């Protein structure tokens, strides 16, 4: 034969398998082919590192198999029936080795974890159920069910996944995707060249992005973005988030706008972002209010001046009222009348207009009206006195006339007697 492998039908598994042309079996059943690789090996070969492929081309055909359910292929790879499931092997370091149900393919590849798989030169799968795929890929003894895929990729914790050259996933349930990525905290995720997520539940996406160890739940998205505070997000190239519970789209040196933002709800309880059009409307109202306030300020200043004037007038009026109170007529309850007495002395009422003179008038009359009346009374008194004198004279004259009449009556009676006698 001119090739080192050949394909045969495996009746036990019902599949075609690849077997070494020169392989020799050791074990209880010498007639059984021991180095069998299923079609999975052919599929996996496209992902084996360059070193592993080179070694496959130079394979000396020394691969050896047993019945423990594992496979070893490649220079220095060895399968020994004394290696049983879950046993860690301590063999000659120049040889690859596998544990029970494991697979090691490649130059110095080692699958020491039960049911583990190491594919590629110097690949090492140390923990149960782990997969190390690529030259120098390594899943550590503490990394059960982990996966390291890529040259020198390392997965060193439970369920960790490292995918890419030099990718390193050391946090429990962490994922590192891309060259030189590092996910060192539990449930951390990195995607992109040089991305680093160092805190719990953190995520770093993009070239050289970083979430620091004190930034739990932080997210960095974009080339060079850095988040260094809890529960914060840095979005965009070289953005930084340095305060807790913030979303940053830039840095102290780099400012960005957020565009195409919908109208946020405006209410007492709203936490929505508002956009420029909403703020423009608010600014327009503020501008109008400023104008109105300025106008009101002028009015207020004028009112202040008017109030000062009114205060002066009120004070003057108050003084006048005080003076008027002092000079006003006061009610005298004892006499049931207003009194003009002040400071114990009687006072005059001056500048009193002429009151109406009529039978039903209740107006007060002034001195001039009373003076005119007094003049008339004095005139009447004088006239009455004159009339009295005249009356007295008339009475005297009447008395004299009565005497004369009486005398005349006597004379007439005497004359009548004389006439009668004549």
Automatic annotation (TrEMBL):
Where would I find the ESPR domain in this sequence? 1-47
Q: Ranges for the Trimeric autotransporter adhesin YadA-like head domain?
A: 103-123, 142-167, 169-189, 201-225, 228-253
InterPro entries documented for this protein: Adhesin_Head_dom, Coiled_stalk_dom, ESPR, Serralysin-like_metalloprot_C
One cellular component term (GO) for this entry is: outer membrane
What single Pfam family name could you report for this chain, choosing any that match?
A: YadA_head
Gene3D superfamilies (alphabetical): 1.20.5.170, 2.60.40.4050, 4.10.80.270, Serralysin-like metalloprotease, C-terminal
Sequence ranges assigned to domain Trimeric autotransporter adhesin YadA-like stalk in this UniProt record: 257-301, 348-392
Q: What is this protein called?
A: Autotransporter adhesin SadA
